[in-house]
Amino acid sequence: MLCSRIRTALSARLDGEALPAGVTARRLDDHLAGCRDCRRWDARARALTVVLGDATAPPQVAADADPAAVEALLDRLRPGRRAG
Ligand SMILES: [Zn+2]
C-alpha cells in the first residue's frame, strides 16, 4: 500500500475519524512495522496532536508520543524564545 494512503489513514485514526475504505487498523500496523518513514511520520503527527491540545484525543495519544519530539515542538512554539 502507498505510504500516502497509510498517512491519510493514520491522520484519520489520530483524529478519531473512520479509516478510509480498504484500510484496516491491522494493515496500518503492518505497514508501520515495515516502514520506518511512516513510523516517523506517525510519531510527529502524534506529537502535533498533543501540542495542539485536541480535546477529543484520548489521553493515551499523549502517552504514546515521543517525549523528545513533543519537547522540541513546545520549544519552538514557546513565544519569545529563539534557537541559537
Ligand atoms: Zn510507509
From TrEMBL:
Domain Putative zinc-finger residue range list: 3-39
Q: What is this protein called?
A: Putative zinc-finger domain-containing protein
Q: Which organism is it from?
A: Streptomyces lunalinharesii
Q: What is the lineage of its organism?
A: Bacteria, Bacillati, Actinomycetota, Actinomycetes, Kitasatosporales
Short name of any one Pfam family annotated for the protein = zf-HC2
Q: Which InterPro entries match?
A: Znf_put (IPR027383)
